[in-house]
## 1
Amino acid sequence: MSATSCTHCATQLAPDSLACPACGTLVHGAALKELAGQAQSRTDSRDFLAARDLWLQAQDLLPEGSQQHAAVRGRIEQLTWQLETPASGEEPAQAPKAWWLRGLAGAGTTALFLFGKLKFLILGLTKASTFVSMFAFFGVYWSVYGWPLALGLVIAIYIHEMGHVAMLRQLGIAASAPMFIPGVGALVQLKQRISDPLTNAKIGLAGPVWGLGAALTALLVYAATGARIWLAIAQLTGFMNLFNLTPVWQLDGARGLHVLARSERWALVAIVAVALLLTGQRLLVIVGGVAVWRSLERETGPGDARVLATFAGLVISLSLLARGVR
């Protein structure tokens, strides 16, 4: 199947795209409208099984993480409940739940959310190229640092890359599975060119955001156990993700900086300088120096306050985590 263009803004689309990366228009809008009509008709005639099958087809045509995907998933869950509930009687009235039961339900919802993220991470390992390259990467670093630290770093890098994958799936952009390269790290190859600077920034900064989550998790485990290996993993994970924020070449920082206007770039330089004074992390000299050079460029981005805030938060948080790394 050859690449097509968005019917709304004419942006070039990859064969596997489910939504336009520039304007968000759904690629299969016409088919989705037809499936929705058929599903509603089946629901009205109480053919819940056929209606659910139609909604399942529609779900496959929507990017995960989108509002439409969530709405269709809700329809599927409702129809599943109707199929499993006996038609002869209604649900008995229930007494109000005690506060602790409501809290337990909230905790259960949170646990399911975290399980969903864990499930997503585990599914990423089903790709042979990811698993084999990851194992080879682990073997190389095991021989240098020992297996506990090597395993922690491999998992942290994997979580970083899956942050990119999650954002790409949310935006409906096709990409390869993560590939590990000893001595370099890991990468995800896009299967289409991203021309919109805001979309590029979202993809780029998603990796460090997930990487920050991995570092904070390791720090919490250290706080709970006192095992210093977890502190080392947290600090090194922070350092690696901070290095990725250097706005040069294909690093994540370059993607994030591309959308920023000149004034926002200078604001980022100031934030890097403050982080350097607070933490003494010398890597910030490189990050800030490159940011100064990029701020002097003739062409800058249209500007985006949210990207600037995300970039700034990552610089400060990761430099605090990495301040023990010299």
## 2
Amino acid sequence: MADVLTGAARRAADAVDPARTLADLGRLVRTPSVTGDERAVQDLVAGILEQIGATVERIETDPAEFARTDPDWPGQEMPRTELPVVVGRLGRPGGRRILLVGHTDVVPVGDPAAWSVDPWGAEVRDGSLFGRGAVDMKGGCASILAAVRALVESGAAADFDGEVVAAFVPSEEDGGQGMLAAIRAGVTGEMAIITEPTDMDIVIAHAGAIIFRLTVPGRAAHASMRREGVSALDKLGVLIRALEADEAERNAAETDPLMTALGLPYPTIIGIVRGGEWASTVMDQVVADGRYGVALGETWRDAETRLRACIAAAAKADPFLRDHPPTVELVGGKFSSARVPADHPLPVSLADAATATLGRQPALIGEPYGADMRLLVTEGRTPTVIFGPGHIASAHSADESVPVDDVVACARVLAAWVARELATSG
């Protein structure tokens, strides 16, 4: 590809409208869509796509039936009764197909008092738009919508040799079943970009994670006779120390520069602890939920095997737990790792389009979090990267925000890249 944009790619990039992009982003953020309740925002997205002129398809999957019947169902952490997917199409079916993918669900607001703005207000301040989901990832969704609109209004879409598919999925935050439902309905292609926040660098590899629950036994006793009891909290401490040693070993064993650059690519944490019924009684049970990192090259099943082995070895070494073993369950999302080669045509072509559009060369990086990328790569057989506006550090936090200029710039890169990839010639 050339160093500068020409022809349809230049026209598509230039056709991105900053004002309408900001308006769409504001509407998305002002529409609450906490995981498990995404219907309203999906209706909004479908309406915008129809106004743009895309062919809109809705995919409806029964989540209960999906969980029972699909062997690769990726889990969930929030209750739900529906799984609405919205897909917009431009171009000619039957040729090459490329995907632009975003998730519309967001995590809960948390403590409203921790916010200096209305979490659903979409306030713009100092060049950034604030609100729950602004960066994770309604900013990226707005970039996709703006790119699709620009491809239509520039005329580039009329000459496509193939089609671009814009897929908006629910349930990414708690496992990815929305993405898997889309894949099962045929939403796959030659290449895909997910517009999660990457600070406009290109993620070509990501780790994964599993959510687990430990049920740790103890033996109850009156506080005045505590030596007659065994504190389940103390035994949880035994298991935590084993998990810490396992974390150190797994991270020290990593040699891939994409992951070693992260410092701690495969963290393990305990995030929730529940136990005890009376202050004067030695705890006879503790239940702890946590996250266990999945290493690059591993599936979630590989990580589960290692987690179970770690807990079993620690229990075997403890006199009480040897006879009263803890249990391990997977209770939430199950994210395998994924990667595409650095020299694959997808990151190469996207980096070229980004350089020509933005005037800087994006880095090819790895990330420690799980993402829908792994489902497209492993289940959809679709080479996929992550490239989007804003920084992940703002995600899930109070006063979450995304720079508006980044949302517009991302849209311009996407429009230019799609126009190049689906050009009828050259």
## 3
Amino acid sequence: MQGKTVSVKIPRKQDHYDIRIGVGTLHDCGGWIKRCTGSEPRRIAIISNRTVFGLYGEMVRKSVADAGLEASVHLMGDGEKYKSLLTLEKTLAFLSEHKLTRTDAIVALGGGVVGDLAGFAASVYLRGIPFLQIPTTLLSMIDSSVGGKTGVNTAFGKNLIGSFYQAAGVLIDVATLATLPSRELTAGFCESVKQGALSGYELFDQTKDFLSRTPQNPLTIRVNDSHEVSRKYLSGLVDLIASQISFKARIVEGDEHESAAKKGRKSRKILNFGHTFGHALEKVTSYKRFKHGEAVGHGIVFAATLANKLELLGQNEVKLLNDVVRLAGRLPALSGIAAGDIAEAFAYDKKQINESLQWILLRGIGKPVIVPDTNIPRSVVTETIREILHK
């Protein structure tokens, strides 16, 4: 099966890095690391968690050893609550204890939590050492591994402490998705719906059609099986992931550091569509109840409903977005969450500019707009919160 490669340009460096997508690519990760770094690192630190490393760690170790590299392994906790300053400190101590130098490299093996934490550690250790990503969840493949955002969560908000630090390369093996629980796939597909809605009907329809024509989680079929459904699914998934990454790469290339001054559909801020409500859900439930993508799924529905109340988005498009989010999978219920707590959590959202929250809404599929919170009546926001929480 043919793989694909998407290049991400970094204008300020007049450089680029490649994202390689395929089936079985993990077997050559050692050679890939050497090709990406160019500087022939002597040591690499693999940062992962017990679950992911238990599945793929030995394969990665063998490939790294075959490439002549010395690897040390640091396993962090599994889950959003471990994306913290305490985990960052432990990771930096590990890098120091193993005497990594600026010509060595860090490899993140895992989902978005691992990638964000490892990337942040790479950006601050010795003021920056090479960093590579091997994402193993759908959400991290199409979103967090692309574009260089790294960071940790704190008591005062999600991802408010971090840095922009581009990877030297990203390696995606869609075969790793076969071991994911269905909720993780749903989380990734919700993010793909979000990006399709921002991009336009071509990517939106590709995402919708893919979700419509495939059985629920066919990745449970072994990837080396000759079953036609599995082969078609994997081929379609490689194509979809490549299209999703290409969209995000174009946004990142034009606004790498999410400029406060930049507005319109080419601003990186549009990628936060669905995230204001989603981040609030995560915060008020202490990051324990929702996968990030699941919270974004609810956030898409919220943002579409709010846009409709503001007469930006038609009812037919609101229904379309609701229907496609449902195709992504069942989302956890919103029962027991207080509207007041959600409203309070908005104040901690990272999309604050001049003390005003910036809402990312739609005028239509592929037509994102940035609307300052000061332009939206408080009563409309409150009404929308209550409506979504009691659906």
